[in-house]
Amino acid sequence: MTRPNTRRPSNTTLAAALLAILTITAGCSGSAPGIARGEALFDTCAPCHGDDGAGDQELAAPAIAGSSDWYLTYQIEKFQEGVRGYHYTDAEGLRMRPMSRALFADRGDIESVVEYVFSLPIPDPVPTAEGGDVEAGEAEYAALCANCHGIDGRGIDGAVPELNAPSLLHLNDWYIASSLRKYRDGVRGGSPGDAAGAVMRSPVVGMSDERIDDVTAYVMTMRRLPRRIPGPPPEPLPELIVDASILPEGVTVAMAREGQDIFHGEGVCVTCHLRQGAGGPLAPDLTDDVWLNIDGEYESIVNIVTTGVPQPIEHPGQMLARAGTAITDDQIRAVAAYVYTLSR
User: Fold this and answer.
1) Is the pTM of this model over 0.85?
2) Which domains does the chain have, with CATH numbers?
3) Listed residue (75, 85, 60) closest to 2, CA to CA
């Protein structure tokens, strides 16, 4: 269980904070982007996130020191665009959204703040939540989380933004549990265009509070240091060899090879179906001749990727339409061509 959030900033406090950031950005308008500018701008972040960036549970403001620079940048941009902080029940997100919009990318505000936060010492939070079965949480984490966040929680910084996953090792347990519940309930990860959020939401849809507490308890047992050392990149995929005679009319070897790249990249299929469609706890094996929801024919594959699987038969997370991404109809047909070859 986590403590309820009882202390909320007043409207006066929020107005003052916004005025302060506008004043600071105006004062910094002539200064060059960089860590000094970022430190000045951070004065408006510190009332919630703390002078050391270690967060504040009573304000439900997470630790941001220890985050990867790409993740900090990405989240600020998501708040600015309304992709995050859009839900009426997300009090913390709604508070952060207007603050983010006072940072101007064309002046170097975002890069400067991120550079300063990245320079702060990484916090090493101690568990504060009660309950949670660590052994059960380890099994849940291995099944649902490790493929993206790494078996050791260090995260993945890859070349494809949709596949990037942040480190979990600087976060407090109350924030981890709160975030999982928000993803589960659609408070996060449900906004159109939020591909990474959709990927995160998929495995936690339907998770009980007890299972969330178990995963949280396990994450807090992970070795906290060192951080910011992402795991090694995966080995390059082998060249796809396809017998053109097995392909349906209108489907080409070139389409299947393009689909392989999309499957393992911006289509984010790999996050659940794993490399080369081998399947795992989150999604079925695509290399055998067993099809759970369709007959396995090419147009059926196209349709299921397009529409998704709201209620999977044997796996815990739903498959969102287009995997929650913005892949096009042509890209879907390419992915379907690749998937079609896997079981043949």
Assistant:
1) no
2) 11-119 (1.10.760.10), 134-219 (1.10.760.10), 244-342 (1.10.760.10)
3) 60
